[in-house]
């Protein structure tokens, strides 16, 4: 049995925690409320962005974030193009924009 929180609650909890620390997060697009995958659009506030995609290990339990747009930050147009391609593939995706000069994602799990 899968005992993970529904996506909408998981995202809301992280937004509230980040807000308490003065970090702005915005849900840009709501996906499936129960099991939608999350894409993070990290706005470094210097006109560069990083896109991270929620991924799980083969065992389905351990969460990590894959670098959708590569190791280096990209212009917003490139980040948006990547997200648009993912939405065509999976319309149940959530997109959350995180504003953080240091490029932190503020969600559980390492970036790989």
Automatic annotation (TrEMBL):
Please state what the protein is called. Answer: DUF1491 family protein
Question: Gene3D superfamilies attached here?
Answer: Protein of unknown function (DUF1491)
**Species of origin:** Azospirillum oryzae
Sorted alphabetically, the keyword list is: Plasmid
**Looking at the record's lineage, which domain of life comes first?**
Bacteria
Instruction: Report the InterPro entries cross-referenced here.
Output: DUF1491
